[in-house]
Design a protein that fits this description.
The complex is a heterodimer of chains A (116) and B (107). Chain A is built from no helices and eleven strands. With 116 residues, chain A is mainly beta. In chain A, strands 2, 4, 5, 6, 9, 10 and 11 form a seven-stranded mixed sheet that branches. In chain A, strands 1-3-8-7 form a four-stranded antiparallel sheet, with no helix packed on it. In chain A, a hairpin with a 5-residue loop joins strand 4 and strand 5. Chain B is mainly beta. Helices cover 0% and strands 50% of the residues of chain B. Chain B is built from no helices and eleven strands. The radius of gyration of chain B is 13 Å and the shape is globular. The chains are: A mainly beta (116), B mainly beta (107).
């Protein structure tokens, strides 16, 4: 069965960096676009980035463009989100999701808290 | 970027009611719209994609319709498990976006 497992969240100071990972299993990983979505505490869902399956074309929301970088390693069935220049308003649960017709499978999320 | 506006933001209803949630897009997304359900502390789950196609395993009381800029999610007869928050999402543009969510509460 399809499984997505995120890791790498934690507490970080403003201006700091963090790298999130998402390991996929149960499907042909390189055939699918993958996406990151976040949810601030008590708020709605915010799409932040996705990456194509093989040529690694990437797109970003304006809120993270220039600070966050999405990448993937198809040999390791892994998705990454490098987050630099973190701000308090980046505090959220970060989900990875498989992008098929809509976002059809999601991980359980990893919490990133930006605070001094 | 494409903005999605859901209405209402909160909806109070009873078990057995028929409810409809609307999602309006700031420009046409043709049929590239999905609906999700999210319960507290859990990841969202996909209910409907391509505006009206039911995701495998989703009960048939859920249905979606619409195209262009106006879409609806209908639950034909509310069950206790349906009280949750619902989001629409467009994937017409390279820059995806979500609606702000509709919280479905027990009356």
């Amino acid at each position: 069965q399809v499984q997505l497992v995120e890791s790498g969240g934690g507490l970080v100071n403003p201006g700091g960096s963090l790298r999130l990972s998402c390991v996929a299993s149960g499907f042909s990983y390189s055939d699918y676009f993958m996406s990151w979505v976040r949810q601030a505490p008590g708020k709605g869902l915010e799409w932040i980035s996705y990456i194509s399956g093989r040529d690694s074309t990437m797109y970003y929301a304006d809120s993270v463009k220039g600070r966050f970088t999405i990448s993937r390693d198809n040999a390791r069935n892994s998705l990454y989100l490098q987050m630099n220049g973190l701000r308090a308003d980046d505090t959220a649960v970060y989900y990875c999701a498989r992008a098929a017709a809509g976002l059809d499978y999601w991980g359980q999320g990893t919490l990133v808290a930006v605070s001094s | 970027d494409i903005q999605l506006t859901q209405s209402p933001s909160t909806l109070s209803a009873s078990v057995g009611d028929r409810v409809t949630i609307t999602c309006r897009a700031s420009q046409s997304v043709t049929k590239w719209l999905a609906w999700y359900q999210q319960k507290p502390g859990k990841a969202p789950t996909l209910l409907i994609y391509k505006a009206s196609t039911l995701q495998s395993g989703v009960p048939s009381r859920f249905s979606g319709s619409g195209s262009g800029t106006e879409f609806t999610l209908t639950i034909s007869s509310l069950q206790p498990d349906d009280f949750a928050t619902y989001y629409c999402q467009q994937y017409h543009s390279y820059i995806y976006s979500f609606g702000q969510g509709t919280k479905l509460e027990i009356k």
